[in-house]
Amino acid sequence: MIPPSAKVSVSVVVVSRDRPMALKRCVTGLSQLQYASFEIVVVADPAGINALDDVKDLIKTITFDEPNISAARNAGINVAAGEVIAFIDDDAVPEPTWLTYLTQPFENTKVGAAGGFVRGRNGISFQWKARVLDAQGQASDLAVDETQTTILTPQPETAIKTEGTNMAVRRDVLVDLGGFDPAYAFYLDETDLNMRLSAAGYSTAIAPLAQVHHGFAASVRRRVDRVPTDLFDIGASWAVFQRKYIAQEHRDDHWQRQLRSERRRVLTHMIAGGLEPRQVRYLMHRLREGYSDGQSRELAKGWLSSHASDAFKKFDVKPRTSTFEVLGIRGRKAALEQAKFRVKSKEILTLMILSPTALYHHVRFHADGYWEQRGGLFGKAERSDKAFKLSTKTRRRKQEMSRIHAIRGLSDEK
User: Fold this and answer.
1) What is the spatial distance between Cα 164 and Cα 113, in angstroms, rounded to a whole number?
2) Do 164 and 89 contact (CB within 8 A), yes or no?
3) 10-214: what fold?
4) Read out DSSP for 135-160?
5) Each residue of 343-374: b (16+ CB within 10 Å) or e?
6) Is residue 163 within 8 Å of 88, Cβ to Cβ?
7) Of 19, 117, 206, 338, which has fewest CB within 10 angstroms of its CB?
8) Contact 92, 26 (CB under 8 A)
9) How far is CA 228 from CA 25, 102, 216, 346, in A?
10) Where are the domain boundaries for CATH 3.90.550.10 in the chain?
């Protein structure tokens, strides 16, 4: 059994639009969090709210149908009553220990924000670890101890990057800073907050074991294969960022660098067959249109409610036992069918489905509420491993359990 822990009360804010099934899967994952004092605040369009009928009485919901993630997050903050507010995207799912690790740094009163590691589409490799921002808003990798939390103090002209799909901020700090700036409708919203956190002197903690799995679901701005369909909001966000942080005489050089960067990105997709030349021209045109629009966008007024509009709505946490099982060919179908019932009976269930091959491993959180890892008995999980390695089911089970033991809350490594 994983003992639900809690140092501070937490409001988990999820923003969603046009992705009701992804939202439902995210909330299913949140419902398995082993943390004693948290509430779930969902800010979503009507389709997203309707997809949560079975848990609507257990969470806070706000109907919000505007394409502006910053404004939606601020709406969530205004009803959130936790001491700390955590953010996760609708196309992401947390590990059951997520909040435990993410909130530990807040025992230090100097810490204003915290961020964790984000696993990418294959459920094993990391999409983002620790990063630092320079004065131009550019992020670069930052080396930290990946086994424990690191608290970083702000340095001149830098800020610690936290990812919008895995971050937490003290509620009173968010109020003091004015929350997220709605001038950033989609892009650079958390980067802007990171810059303001640093300027205000708050420390930021990086908690590597606070992990979420991010799926990169399709949206109005990108396809499911991550190929962009519109760059308007990226251009607009860079214009807003420049107005707030870049001196007038340096803005043209800064913008030319962003143009070159985005052009390289779309050309890479074109070379890979994901875009046609005319689509590249369209995307770059939209990028420039967005940049022009961002020059006149109204900047944030800097207002959030100092007290939540609603009382804290503690989620009913069920202590769960985390189990890990290996499935072969025999009995697989029955085990998968039974899995959906087992997770309703206080289990955090991981099923590893092995084939007698060297196929690479992939991990996903199934919509029915269990973790599923598929791959070959001789295939690699960590992409830095050998492509082929002789093994047995017993040895492979022990290896994979060891890899995820701390984050999945596994209680048995035998």
Assistant:
1) 12
2) yes
3) Spore Coat Polysaccharide Biosynthesis Protein SpsA; Chain A (3.90.550)
4) TTS-EEE----TTS-EEE---TT-EE
5) beeebbbbbbbbeeeeebbbbbbbebbbbbbb
6) no
7) 338
8) yes
9) 24, 31, 12, 40
10) 10-214
Q: Helix 232-245 to helix 251-271 angle, to the nearest 10 degrees?
A: 160
375 and 362 Cβ atoms separated by less than 8 Å: yes
Which pair of structure tokens corresponds to residue 408? 């999945």
SS3 content of the chain, % helix, strand, coil (to 5): 35, 25, 40
**Residue 390 token pair:** 């002789």
Question: What tens-digit pLDDT sequence spans the chain (414 residues)?
Answer: 444 556 799 999 999 999 999 999 999 999 999 999 999 999 999 999 999 999 999 999 999 999 999 999 999 999 999 999 999 999 999 999 999 999 999 999 999 999 999 999 999 999 999 999 999 999 999 999 999 999 999 899 999 999 999 999 999 999 999 999 999 998 999 999 999 999 999 999 999 999 999 986 667 778 888 899 999 999 999 999 999 999 999 999 999 999 999 999 999 999 999 999 999 999 999 999 999 999 999 997 767 989 999 999 999 998 999 999 999 878 888 999 999 999 988 899 999 999 999 999 999 999 999 999 999 999 999 999 999 999 999 999 999 999 999 999 997 554
Using left for φ > 0, alpha for ψ between -120 and 50, and beta otherwise, residue 310 falls in beta
Could you tell me the two tokens for 90?
């609708």
Token pair in block for residue 134 = 């320079």
According to DSSP, residue 210 is labeled E
Q: Using the Cα atoms of residue 31, residue 221, residue 124 and residue 138 in order, give the sign of their dihedral.
A: negative
pTM: 0.94
Check: CB of residue 241 under 8 Å from CB of residue 229: no
Instruction: Tell me how far apart the terminal alpha carbons of the chain are, to the nearest angstrom.
Output: 16
Pair of tokens at residue 333: 């179908």
Q: What distance in Å separates the CA atoms of residue 354 and residue 373, rounded to the nearest whole number?
A: 8
